[in-house]
Every structure is written in C-alpha cells, then in structure tokens.
Amino acid sequence: MRKFILLLFLSVYLITNAGYAQSYGLRFSSHEVVQERRTTLNLTSSGPLCFKKNGEISFDLNFLPYKETYFGYVLRIIAANNQNIDLVYNQKERTFNFLIGESFSRAFAIDSAALFGGWTHITIHLDLERNEAAISVNDKFIAKGPAKLGNPACTRVFFGANTYEGFQTVDIPPMNLRNIVVKEGAQTRYNWPLSENDGSNATDLQEGKTAVIRNANWIGPKHRNWSLLQSWEINGTPSVAFDREKEVLYIVSSDSLYHISFKNEQQQGIRLAQRLDSLMPGNQSVFNPFLHKLFNFYIDQKKAGSYDSLNRKWDISYTPDLLTVYWQANKFVSQQDTSLYILCGYGQMQYKNTVQRYHFANKKWDSVPTTGERLIPRYLAATGATSNGDTAYILGGYGSNSGNQVVNPRHYYDLMAFHVKDHSFHKVFQLEEPPVQFCFANSLVIDPNTQNYYALIFPDDKFNTSLQLVEGSLKAPRLKPLANTIPYSFHDIKSFADLYYCRDSKKLVAVTLYTSKDNITEVKVYTLEFPPDAVVADKSGLPEFSAWYPLLLIPVVAAGLFLFLRRRRKITPPSAVAPPASATATPLPPLPVVIPETVTDETAPEEIIAEKKGNIYFFGPFEVLDKEGQDVTKFFTPLLKELFLLIAINTIRSGKGISSDRLYATLWRDKSSKEAQNNRSVNMVKLKAILDKLGACAFVKEADRWSLQYSTADIDMDLAGFQQLLHSPRPLQEQPVRDLLKILHRGSFLPDTNYTWLEDIQSEISGITLDILTEAANQFKSDPELLIEIADRIFLFDPVNEEALRMKCSSLVSLGRHSLAKTAFNKFAKEYLHMYGEEFPQSFTDYSG
User: Fold this and answer.
1) Whole-angstrom Cα distance, residue 500 to residue 506?
2) Contact between 469 and 513 (Cβ < 8 Å)
3) Higher model confidence: residue 21 or residue 630?
4) Residues 6+ apart with CB under 8 A from 749
C-alpha cells in the first residue's frame, strides 16, 4: 500500500499533462498459436447489421512486425443472400485482396512502413442503390465491384477468425485493430474504439451495442503494464548488454551466454566452450554497435574482452580481486574515437566523477582529463548517448560534492552533457527537487526525433522497492511518469537495473538483477510496448475523468505529504548521515571470524532498508561512528579504548586475539588475578554496550584467548581492509594501491595513541606501508596524479623522505602546477629544519626536474 501511495504521489507531483494520449485497440492472435486460440471479433453476435441507406464500415489497421506468417482474412462481411465481401492479405504477393463473392477481386498494396509503423484507415463502402461494394484506404478510393446486397442490406461482420457456418476462416494475419465506425448515410450508428482493457466484449459508444471477442488480446494494457518475459536464476554475478540494431539482449555469465531476440521473441542459452573465470561482482558488459561485437569488462583491473561467437568463448580472463570500487558505473560507446567511456561509480566510501576510456582498436585504457563544468561525484545515475556516441547525457544520481561518502551525501537531479570531441561537461538544466527522493537505473533512452528521454527511477531507501518509468525532455526540466511499476529488490552492491529501447519492434525492455547471499543472481526481463502510456485512468472507461480528477488529488496529496513528513522525521541531519553499505570485501584470514547474519531472505527487506553501517577508524585519529553516523568515540574512556584496541588489533592482525595473561598484565598488572577478571568483565560489558550501537559483535574466549567477532555486514574497520591488502600479490596492482591510499587518507596508524605495547605494531605497519608505496611509485611513474597521492601518504610516515619530495615536485611540475610544487618544497624544507636543526641543503630546482 505504501508503494501504491508513493506512486500516486509521484504521479501527481511529476505529471505535467494529464491528457497524455493513451494507446488502445485489439490485437489478433494469429498463426503463432493453434486455431482454437486465434482471435475473432464479431460485431453482429446479437443479430445482423442492417442498412436501409448506403452504409460504410471503417477501421484502423496495422500489422505486427517480425512474424513468420501473414496470410489471412482481415475482414469478412456476409450479406443475407450469402454474398461474401472479404479483405484478405496475400503474403506471397505482399498485397491485399478485396474480394466480392467469386466474381470480383482486386489486389492492392499498402506501403510497408505505414502498414507496420503506423495506422492505416480502411473503409468498406456499401452502395445499396447501385448494389456495389467499394474499398478506400486512407480516404483514397481503391476499387469497387458488383455485390448482391439487397435492400435493406442485412450483414454479418467478422474480423479475424470466424466460425459462421459455411464461411469459417482460421487464417488471419497478426494484426492490430481499432476505431471501428459504422455509418448509415451521414449518421454514425456505431462506434467501437476497442479501448477496453480486459474482458471479451467491446462496447459501442453510440448505443451500447456489444461486440463479442474470442481470445481477446487488448493493446492498452501492453502500453501500461510491464510484462515479465523471462526470469533466470544464474550462479555468480552475470551482467547484461543490448544490441540495439538486432534488438537482442545478452546475459553474460561465467559458463553460459543467454540472449533474447525481441524481434521474434526467441530465447536461447549457449554453453561456453571455455568458462569465463573470475567473473567478479561489478563486472559489466556492453555491445559495440559500430564493431558489432559483445564485450565484457572489469574496470578495476583495466581489462576488457570480446566474445567469439564461432568458438563460444571470450578472449579475456580475470584474476580474483577485491570487490569493485566502481559499483553502478555508467557507460557508453562513441564512434568518434571508437572507445568505451565509463563515468561515475561508487566504492570504498568514495563517489566517482572520473572519466575512463577503453580504446577498442589498441585495447588500451586511459583516464580522460575533462574541461568545462565539474561533474559532481555520484553513482545510481542514468546515462544515455546520441546514436553515434558523440554526446552523452548524465541524469541525477546519489553522491557528494567532495566525493567522500561521509561528507553530506545527497540525491542529485541535474542533467549534464558530456561532449566527446573536447571532453567537456556542461549542465543542461536542473530538475525541480522532488518531495520523495529517488535514484535512477543505469541507462537513459534518448529519442533522437523528439529529443525526449526515458528512464527508470526508484526510491533507494528500502529493499522492496519499485522501478517507475518516466519521460523527460532534453529541452526542458520536466518529468512525467509512464506505465505501472516494476518490482525491484534494491541493495546497492547486489542489485542492478537497466533500460533499453527496441526501435523496430517498438518495445521498451527493463532488466533487473539481484544477487542473493548464496551468490545466485535472479535476472528478470520485462517488456512494455512503445509508446508507453501516462499514469492516468483509462479515459474510455471513465468519460468524466477530467471532472473528478481534482478530487483525486486531495487524498493523494494528503497521503503523500504524510509520508514525506514522516520520512523527514526519520532522516538524520546531513552531517550525521550514515553511508550506504560499503563495497569493502569480507576480510580474509587471518581476520576475525564473522558472526553469521541472522537475516534470512524472507526478513531481508526489513533488515536492509537503510543499509547503514558502523565504522571504526584505526588510521588517523581513533574514531568510532555508530550506524546513524553519530560519533560515539567520546564514550570510550582511556581504559575502554585500550581494552578495545588490545583485543581488536590482535584479532585483526593475527586472527588469534590476545591471551588473558597478556591482557591482565597490560591493563591490570597491579591487580590480583581475581580483581583483574572482575575488572575485565565489568569493562567488557561497558564496551559491548557501546559497540552494539554499531552492529552485531561479541567478545569470545577460546583456549584462554580473547577475540572480537563482528559482522562485516554491520561494521567496517579500516584496519581489516588494510590487512586484506597485505594478502594481495606484490607489487600491488593499481586498484589495490588506490584502495590503500584511501585507507591512509585520514592519516597514519593511530598517530595520537601512545601505548608501549603498540609501538612495535605502529613501526611494523609504517615499514610495510612505506615498502608498498615505494614499490608503487616505481611501478606507476607515468601517472603524476597517482604519484602525488603516493608522496603525500609517504610523508605521513616519513615527513622528510627526499624521494617522496622529488616525486611530488616533479609530478606537480609535469602537470603545470609550479606554484604548488614550490609550496611543497618549502614545506618540506621547514620540516627538515625543525627536525634536524639545519637548513635543507638542496634547492628547488634539484627536485623539480
């Protein structure tokens, strides 16, 4: 119910044109089903249709594309003297045949673009005075012939299949029909718009006459209701890609390639001849429309590979890695420089605004320096590009101005344009801030003819949420909700949603992925016929809708306002907002044993709604934040702090914890064994009361050793991430180096904490860190930005490291930042004088070359 009210509220708030055209009509099931399931429309089930004056029967017709068989009867009129008047499509000749009995036949063609791409207006004329029947198409006369109509002319009228004795037909083309109008003289007698949404009857708007349908298949709901086309459960973490020309969706998994062709609705799964090993969470796939190839890529390892359809294998392999730091990154392919561009993303408590590029020709990755306006770091944005990929549009998202997850994260509703030619960003416009916050699915579908775009939005503050289709314009800041919602299980590092458009078969395709705790991903594919309808009631069923629509607004707005105010009361002030679930991987041994999560799949929606986590920082000043982002460090008395650090550090570093004897000797050496035990028990209770604010944790004693066990789903500790990096192969690759730099951005290891027992640990961590950073500096000499960050982290541990000075000054000079290089040198010289009591003997020029 809450989701329903929310949807209505969004509709009232966002909708700008309540008169948005609704799609309607009747679809005829044809040769794709058995005879008994083919569609019949009988206008005369309650008796013949009689004309005393000249009459006509008109209707709008189109054909469904990409079907195998089109032969069959569109219309059959049977006069009282058994005179048949037929409209039949001849697939072999690609013509329509207008038939009157067995003596008259005229063939004519309708332009295929009009027949399949729009609506064709056809009229059958009955001339009682001349005993003739004629046909016109789009009000243009086609043919006429003699007919034994009688006066009055009483007829039976069937569209599609019919079982009328002696005139049965089961061959019908796959077609859509609407706006059947019967006129006698100049007067309209009957009008069946065929705008119903369900049932087996169509009602005439003039007199209420009923037309009976067998195997009804109404068009209207197909433009308003998403249809679940396919669902898979796939082991691991698959990704999706879309071939817009062939209208094929690909689902890439480690052992198979699944695909759906939306032109013929055929589905297939192909077993790979060679597995794509280590298909890690956060991998993405893309179809290059200019090379006509399917690619899979993993941003963190700067790797991409293509699929060999002939040999059923990929030309890429990945090495096991940490979780990606580019969750929900956006992408597009540009023809201009034959490259894949990657924008935005999130990981390790940082939102991204960097632009990365992969050249398909030389298989090289690089980072693209940008100009123009600044793109605020974000993820959960929607990105769409022009047909040749020369311009991409980035809409909305969630992030922060600094990129730091801790510093005032928020939703964004701006539309930014990125131009490939000069790599510049500029802001197109700002959408109005909505009362109910939402994020976007990954892709933006752009209509080049209308300059409108389509996107999927969803409230991101709950697990059981819904995707809502919206339409916007590249020319004006507006959004309009369309169609109904799609159920979506949202957990930012376990979920993914995307939107595609099938131009030829006129469908929108939505894909959702959710990976469970068992590492099984549920992939669901939904379709919606294009154009989608707005979120308003069906006017045909509610002719007075405009009169009572304002009354609907009162309860809807009231309900929406109630939810809005209720939600505001629950929101923590921006400075204290807890970050969403971190992408930090579960620590590897020898890290603490993780308490099994008590959340089951059935209860997960309630438990994961906010996805807030506690944080404990060992690098930089010791700091503890609870699930709401509130600083609880002040509750740690000196004794509680040392007790916690003793147990936690020894647990994380060795996986074994600390012995009771060493614990007592460190903290209560002047106490008896019994007094030490009592002190330990009392203070552990106090300490756990504080830690419970962060999440699931416990102090466990095994074999006389105390250790801290905690749930990594509830609590993040940067020391655990550091220890995990130490288990990575040396020298570290670029991404692990960047992960290390992020951990160190707060400072060195507990710099303000002075315990005798801690000194050796601090020294060891400093030495290991300096070794890793020095290796990285030698490994990435061509990346000045990275070298500057490495130098800054080295200074944390060794403020007078001359190699770090040389690295930073020369990198700044290479980037044209001469004044910053000089400032860095002067700062170093000042620190050198303070430490050694003498002037630094070298000059700036010695370090800036």
Assistant:
1) 11
2) no
3) 630
4) 618, 619, 719, 761, 762, 765, 766, 769
**Torsion from C-alpha of 303, 306, 311, 312, nearest 10 degrees:** 90
Does the bond joining 531 to the residue before it have cis omega, within 30 degrees of 0? yes
DSSP reduced 3-state for 560: helix
User: What is the three-class DSSP state of 443?
Assistant: strand
Describe the strand order of the beta sheet including 623-625 as a list of residue ranges. Answer: 623-625, 614-617, 715-717
Q: Tokens 């300490």: give the residue.
A: 687
| Complete DSSP assignment for 819-834 | HHHHHHHHHHHHHHHH
Tens of pLDDT, residues 65-119: 888 899 999 999 998 778 899 999 999 889 999 999 888 889 999 988 889 888 9
d(CA 26, CA 179): 10
Q: Are strands 452-458 and 445-447 parallel, antiparallel or unpaired?
A: antiparallel
The one-letter code for the residue type at 557 is V
* Alpha helix stretches (DSSP H) within 324-421: none
Structure tokens at 705: 């050793």
The span from the CA of 84 to the CA of 556, in Å, is 54
8 Å CB contact between 358 and 286 = no
Q: What is the rounded average pLDDT of the residues 271-285?
A: 90
**Can you give the pTM of this predicted structure?**
0.63
Residue 340 CA to residue 362 CA, distance in Å, equals 12
Distances (CA, A) of 762 to 742, 751, 797: 18, 8, 10
Quick one: tokens of 329? 């990154």
With the CA atoms of 680, 686, 690 and 696 taken in that order, what torsion angle do they form, in degrees rounded to the nearest 10? 60
Total residue length of the chain: 849
Residue 487: partners with Cβ closer than 8 Å, 6 or more residues away: 464, 466, 467
Do 392 and 375 contact (CB within 8 A), yes or no?
no
Residue type, 794: I
Is cis: bond before 238, omega within 30 of 0? Answer: no
* pLDDT mean across residues, the chain: 85
For helices 734-744 and 784-797, angle between their N-to-C axes, nearest 10 degrees: 40
Q: What is the Cα gyration radius of the chain?
A: 35
Residue 114 CA to residue 183 CA, distance in Å, equals 25
Q: Output 565-572 pairs: Cβ under 8 A, ≥24 positions apart.
A: 567/436, 567/461, 572/628, 572/629, 572/630
Per-residue confidence (pLDDT) for residue 20, from 0 to 100: 52
Q: Please, are residues 142 and 136 in contact by the beta-carbon 8 Å criterion?
A: yes
